[in-house]
């Protein structure tokens, strides 16, 4: 094992992570918290989507919104992860196309009372996570609020989402890690604001 190289890599990762945490915009998180409260109070639902590791974050976020953020608050947050039903995902992929897998699930479901939260390291580009961009554009067309968590340069999320958080580093592990931190800041911020 190349101990010195590994230690240097870990030191750089830690330094970069600290810098990225300092760049998180609390004001934007507060705006998202207020929008989720609005969605909850009007009886809407928060939908989450992502691919790969970001799919796991999307599922985790939906669970935390529904259970953790709901504790000790005066409103009920309904949330669903569109990545959680494998049969439905594969049916859409098989019968339509991978690009339609999330948009198809939103059709006839999402309204102007709702929110869509999309998570992607690349933020949707022509070769990465185009299915997320299609879903966001569809949600926008229905008047739903849209929030994107991206990495790298933010991809198309910076253009198609009402609010986007960009972890400006070309590093999948750092982007994914900061996305989980942002999601927890939103969830526990909701608890603070609703208690």
CATH class: Alpha Beta
Task: Determine the CATH topology.
Answer: Rossmann fold
**Mind describing the biggest β-sheet?**
5 strands, parallel
Total number of beta strands: 5
Q: Please identify, by name, the CATH architecture.
A: 3-Layer(aba) Sandwich
Structural class: alpha/beta
Low-confidence stretches: none
CATH homologous superfamily title = Glucose-6-phosphate isomerase like protein, domain 1
**Could you say which overall geometry the principal axes of the C-alpha atoms support?**
globular
**How many individual domains?**
1
- Determine the strand fraction and express it as a percent band: 5-15%
Identify the strand order in the major beta sheet.
Answer: 2-1-3-4-5
Distance between the termini: 50 Å
Number of helical segments with 4 or more residues: 8
Order of helices and strands: HHEHEHHEHEHEH
Structure description:
The chain has 8 helices and 5 strands. The protein is α/β, with parallel strands linked by helices. It has a single domain, classed as Rossmann fold, CATH 3.40.50.10490. A 5-stranded parallel sheet has the order 2-1-3-4-5, with helices on both faces. The protein starts with a helix and ends with a helix.
List the helices and strands and how they pair.
Layout: H1 3-22, H2 26-41, E1 45-50, H3 53-68, E2 78-81, H4 86-95, H5 101-106, E3 115-120, H6 130-141, E4 145-151, H7 157-160, E5 163-167, H8 172-194
Parallel strand pairs: 1-2, 1-3, 3-4, 4-5
Helix pairs in contact: 2-8, 3-8
Task: Write a brief caption for the model.
This protein has 195 residues and is of the alpha/beta class. Helix content is 55%, strand content 14%.
């Amino acid at each position: 094992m190349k101990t010195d190289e590994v230690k240097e890599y870990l030191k750089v990762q830690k330094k970069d992570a600290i810098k990225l945490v300092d760049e998180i915009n609390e004001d934007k998180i507060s705006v998202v918290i207020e929008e989720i409260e609005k969605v909850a109070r009007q009886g809407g639902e928060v939908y989450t989507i992502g691919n790969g590791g970001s799919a796991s974050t999307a599922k985790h976020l939906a669970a935390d919104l529904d259970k953790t953020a709901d504790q000790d608050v005066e409103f009920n947050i309904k949330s669903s992860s569109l990545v959680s039903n494998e049969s439905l995902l594969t049916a859409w992929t098989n019968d339509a196309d991978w690009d339609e897998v999330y948009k198809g699930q939103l059709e006839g479901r999402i309204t102007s009372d709702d929110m869509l939260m999309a998570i992607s390291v690349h933020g949707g580009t022509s070769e990465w996570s185009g299915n997320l961009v299609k879903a966001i554009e569809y949600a926008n067309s229905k008047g739903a609020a849209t929030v994107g968590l991206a990495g790298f340069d933010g991809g198309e999320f910076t253009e198609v989402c009402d609010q986007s958080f960009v972890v400006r580093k070309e590093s999948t592990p750092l982007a994914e890690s900061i996305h989980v931190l942002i999601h927890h800041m939103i969830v526990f911020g909701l608890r603070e604001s609703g208690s």
